[in-house]
Amino acid sequence: MDSETREVYSMHTDGGEPIQVARFSPDGGFLALGSRDNNIYVYQVSEEARKYSRVGRCSGHSSFITHLDWSADSQFLQSNSGDYELLYWNASLCRQITQSSELRDVEWASNTCTLTFNTIGIWPEGADGTDVNQSERSHDARLLATADDFGKVKLYSYPAAYPKSLCHTYGGHSSHVTNVGFLHDDSRLISTGGRDTSVMQWMLV
């Protein structure tokens, strides 16, 4: 839909459950949709984002999709699900890559998935998998921010690849933090609250 004229460019229906997460590929050529029906739907984007053609469905998760990330070259996806799986996909073929070692040198355009080899250190001891709601890597790939159920925003050096990685912890929200994201120039971090429905800006100095 055009945000100004409200013209509807395209309408599609996939599955019978809500879409949980949507991510455009870095080159703008694909759109990946993670659904609560456990599948990821991939669309090819053309005609200046006016036309969306379904490429296929990535099927393999046993629970709903929670997070998605594209590789920097727009060829691969990594995804998390509600039962704490981490799976990898060839996006254009919608085929699961079962040997994670094949992607060891892949550069990821983002790191919103909370369960990856680069985010092992964000999980506190005894965590049940639901404590960290979101992670986000800065655009310069130096920092990793997280939002958790304890009302805290945490800042790590990226990657946080070792257990109990050191971090700076910041408070401000009165309940769980649902999301975090860096501005395009990494000058500020934006966090959103759950029950307190607040949006906060954090200056990076």
Q: How large a portion of the residues is in β-strands, by DSSP E? A: 35-45%
Low-confidence stretches: none
**Total domain count:** 2
Q: Using the alpha-carbon principal axes, give the shape.
A: globular
Any guess at the CATH architecture of the largest domain?
7 Propeller
In helices, the fraction of residues equals: under 10%
What key phrases describe this protein's structure?
2 domains, four-stranded antiparallel sheet, 43% strand, globular, WD repeat, WD_repeat_EMAP
Describe this structure in a few short sentences:
The protein is mostly beta strands. It contains no helices and 15 strands.
Topology (elements, then pairings):
Blueprint: E1 19-24, E2 30-35, E3 39-46, E4 51-59, E5 65-70, E6 76-81, E7 86-90, E8 95-96, E9 132-137, E10 143-148, E11 152-157, E12 167-171, E13 177-182, E14 188-193, E15 199-203
Antiparallel strand pairs: 1-2, 2-3, 3-4, 5-6, 6-7, 7-8, 9-10, 10-11, 11-12, 13-14, 14-15
Organism: Timema bartmani
GO molecular function, one term: microtubule binding
InterPro entries: Beta-prop_EML-like_2nd (IPR055442), WD40/YVTN_repeat-like_dom_sf (IPR015943), WD40_repeat_dom_sf (IPR036322), WD40_rpt (IPR001680), WD_repeat_EMAP (IPR050630)
Please describe what this structure looks like.
There is one protein chain. It contains no helices and 15 strands. It has 205 residues and is mainly β. It folds into two domains: 109 residues, YVTN repeat-like/Quinoprotein amine dehydrogenase (Methylamine Dehydrogenase, Chain H, 7 Propeller), CATH 2.130.10.10; 95 residues, no CATH class. The strands form four sheets. A four-stranded antiparallel sheet has the order 1-2-3-4, with no helix packed on it. Strands 5-6-7-8 form a four-stranded antiparallel sheet, with no helix packed on it. Strands 9-10-11-12 form a four-stranded antiparallel sheet, with no helix packed on it. The radius of gyration is 17 Å and the shape is globular.
